[in-house]
Amino acid sequence: MLIDTYGRVATDLRVSLTDRCNLRCTYCMPEEGLQWLAKPDLLTDEEIVRLIDIAVTRLGVTEVRFTGGEPLLRPGLVGIVERCAALEPRPKMSLTSNGIGLERTAEALREAGLDRVNVSLDTLRPDVFREMTRRNRHSDVLRGLAAAHAAGLAPVKVNAVLMPGLNDDEAPELLAWAVSRGYELRFIEQMPLDAQHGWKREGMITAADILRSLRDRFELTPEGEGERGSAPAERWLVDGGPARVGVIASVSRPFCGACDRTRLTADGQVRNCLFAREETDLRTALRSAAPDEEIARLWQEAMWGKKAGSGLDDPSFLQPDRPMSAIGG
Prior knowledge:
The chain has one domain: Alpha-Beta Barrel (TIM Barrel), CATH 3.20.20.70. Helix content is 30%, strand content 16%. It is built from ten helices and twelve strands. It has a twelve-stranded mixed beta sheet. Helix 1 (45-58) runs parallel beside helix 2 (77-85).
């Protein structure tokens, strides 16, 4: 197992397939983009599948989430999903995407074995989308969501970040829209993972702000109070259900005590926490012909050293050197 000194066991693996993205979201990266990883530094498709195999068959991982950057930019994505679906035991597999390109790939991903998707959409207004992402691709995201729903990649979850002065008034409209289409909406507090290191706690839209706005229009009932487990989102039934809405409050309501996640970057580094400042190199071991047992041991050692929490509430907190786009969600 991937266990740490606090008794937490990691069963959820987040795999970044690329650090590249075709949007330039203001809370993630600068308009000019970033210096992307060189191709020789990226794990190959075969190396990714081998590491997932080790995680699933030797280390107790039961869920795999493919992330980026934008994972749909990875040419071998469908093949990776198909090969991982053949593992025994078969892990549950999901994808976090900006939705651009999902219209043409949703059916193939479903046939390859993908179970569901999370798609980022922060606004229903094309002009605000353009301002937040610096790209005119709002309609592409909407079509991608519809294609995922039609392909049966359910539940289709929509992730939204609210930013002051941009879309902070849209929470009720976003929820009504998601409910009408059978999507599950999840609001995510903005986290200190932007490449510009411009995040500020002051003025950020918190979970309390979001819930206050939603309750002006909807009746929210806590779902399974006390039964959240390791899920990052607190969830509420909307107007009695069955529709749900979630809030991931990593900053104002941290949930580190039940964390069950381990992360693998596109260049083969293990991160035991989203906000970790240390990494463990598996790529070198892979390319040095290390046996699976040795790679599994390195992974276990990386997770054993996981800290009790993210440290976000500590005045001495420092952002990780890597931004979210290079870590994977």
